[in-house]
Amino acid sequence: MSELRWHSLLRQWVVVASHRQNRPQMPANWCPFDPGSGQVPDNYDVYVYPNDFPAFDEDEEPFDPEPGLFRTTGARGKCDVILYHPNHTQRPSDLPAEHWRKIVDVWASRVDELAKLPDVQHIMVFENTGVAIGVTMPHPHGQIYAFPFVPPLVQTELDASREHYQCNFTCLYCELMKREIADKVRIVAENEHFVAFVPFAARFPSEIQLYSRRHFGRLQDMTEEERQSFASMLSTVRRKYDHLYTDIEPKDTVLPLMMVLRMPPVHGNHPFFHFHVEFLPLQRSQKKLKYLAAVETAGGTYLADTRPEERAAALRNAEPATPEA
């Protein structure tokens, strides 16, 4: 059972979900996501698996947004695991664009379904990869959380993009993308419909933001051509990451990172919001990790150990072979 507790000083909700302590921790000889486990179909390409230890659940008490000292409310929502591939040892970076397209289609379909649930306010599609991130199951997968509230960092982006739109009558994201394209030095990869770049004020080492060239807000708003281009860019970016540090052993090691698809809240009109993806890696050099210590975690101010322009150049030059379908 989960509950939400209001943090009066930070003005945000904290999810208390103590049952998640019982999650398996990198089991060696059995995985519920493998075909033959009895938990998933014997044959699948991409599969939506209900999270066994959800932070949000449809059976929880309804969410009441009223804050207050020592205020608690229900954590009603939904948590899914998206299994990328039946092969337990398959790296996301080795998936061809054709398979990423299947994942994109499942994402879009599931987000559309979750958006229809009455208590859902925001949907986050994300992936945690690598032991350093805290992954508990090594099988290639991502997740989708359907929140009963809008998470604080999403709200910060909403507020900033709304203010820019009201003052300048333009999209803040489109302006940032135009400047990055003009500057060129932080561009990592691009195709007809998407641009990947290391942002000017990157918080994480080798951070990449992936923007759609056309202005739209939701994953479901993509055209067929844009979905294919998006899948191709996901494949390209992931391969670059896992080939960035070529001497890391073993050779099948994945770069520890978080991937988040940024979309507007489910309800309301948000013409100022622009669909984009954030890749947040933790590897700051070949043998060193970036840790979020006191200044970042307690102060909210990031210390960048790498220079964005140098990281962009390194990522541009990480050119692995295209995986076969």
Structure description:
The chain has 325 residues and is α+β, with helices and mostly antiparallel strands. It has a single domain, classed as HIT-like (HIT family, subunit A), CATH 3.30.428. It contains six helices and twelve strands. The strands form two sheets. Strands 3-5-7-6-11-12-10-9-8 form a nine-stranded antiparallel beta sheet, sandwiched between helices. Strands 2-1-4 form a three-stranded antiparallel beta sheet, with no helix packed on it. A hairpin with a 4-residue loop joins strand 1 and strand 2. Helix 1 packs across helix 4. It is globular, with a radius of gyration of 20 Å. The chain starts with a strand and ends in an 8-residue tail after the last helix.
Q: What's the topology here?
A:
Blueprint lengths: L2 E5 L4 E5 L30 E4 L21 E3 L3 E6 L13 H18 L7 E8 L11 E7 L4 H17 L3 H12 L3 E4 L3 E4 L10 E5 L11 H19 L14 E6 L13 E6 L12 H4 L10 H10 L8
Helix pairs in contact: 1-4
Count of strand segments: 12
What is the global morphology?
globular
Fourth CATH level, the homologous superfamily: HIT-like
Radius of gyration: 20 Å
Largest sheet, order of strands side by side? Answer: 3-5-7-6-11-12-10-9-8
Number of domains: 1
CATH class descriptor name? Alpha Beta
Summed up:
The chain has 325 residues and is an alpha+beta fold. 25% of the residues lie in helices and 19% in strands.
Key structural traits:
alpha+beta, 3-stranded antiparallel beta sheet, 12 strands, single chain, 19% strand, HIT family, subunit A, globular, 325 residues, 9-stranded antiparallel beta sheet
